[in-house]
Design a protein that fits this description.
The protein is α+β, with helices and mostly antiparallel strands. About 20% of the residues lie in helices and about 40% in strands. A hairpin with a 4-residue loop joins β2 and β3. The longest helix has 21 residues.
């Protein structure tokens, strides 16, 4: 009986270790880590924000557009309500200023954002 419990315990341990390795988030990418947080649209004074979460989701603007995001090859891909858009980006000022653009996508304003 003790041997069965040890085997069951070992199998459960391996199962959980394998499953924990399956969940990938965007912060496994060093470049993507720079995005995580809340950013304020700096080109107007309307207080528009975008929040990039480490689980690969985003929330944008007053209307609350939401979706997923990934970073690859110097571009950010945004997916919301079945639409997908790839934008160029650049960081400056010690990674506290983010420039996204130039395309306007599903109400997403290209331009400069400042990290809160």
């Amino acid at each position: 009986m003790k041997k069965k419990l040890m085997i069951i315990g070992f199998v459960m341990f391996v199962f959980f270790v394998v499953l924990s390795g399956c969940s990938e988030n965007v912060t496994s990418n060093p470049e993507a880590k720079k995005f995580v947080g809340t950013w304020v649209y700096a080109d107007t004074q309307d207080g528009t924000t975008i929040k990039f979460s480490s689980d690969g989701t985003f929330l944008y603007g007053i209307a609350g557009h939401s979706g997923t995001w990934t970073v690859q090859n110097g571009e950010i891909q945004l997916v919301s309500e079945g639409e997908s858009a790839t934008q160029t980006y650049s960081f400056s000022n010690g990674d506290t200023t983010l420039r996204i653009g130039p395309r306007d996508t599903f109400g997403f304003s290209p331009g400069n954002y400042t990290k809160q």
